[in-house]
User: Fold this.
Amino acid sequence: MLMALLQAAVQEASKEEMADIIRAAVAPVFLLSGIGAFVLVLTQRLARVMDRLRAHGADGVADASSRAVLQRRGKFIVTGLRLLTLCAHMVCGVVVALFLDYFTDLPLDPLVAVLFIAAMVLLSAALYCLLREVSLINQGAPEDS
Assistant:
């Protein structure tokens, strides 16, 4: 049913109208590429923390407090990755809602706004996790940075 409705709407849309909706969807897609780069940064940081924890086995970290700091850093990074994943889902929802709003009679402008605001809040929270993780570097062993 929905597919047939969308196909009919696409056939009625002019090339200019399609160009407008694609232009509106480009900004969130650029945001997705930025989120992807941020995910890459966090995964590299997590790999460094995990390598450090595994390097010398369970007893290998210089002392218990250094190990605890590394574990806290890992938790902040994992939390940041989870927030970024949710953020990416919200941005994808924005793109889908933009297209559905254009091709259907559904009033989806409020949904687009809520999804975008949620994405920005999640992105800010992920940035905060990165900030907290970086602030823990000075509390660990000198070779942790």
The longest helix spans residues 15-54. The chain has four helices and no strands. The chain has a mean pLDDT of 84. Residues 22-144 form one domain.
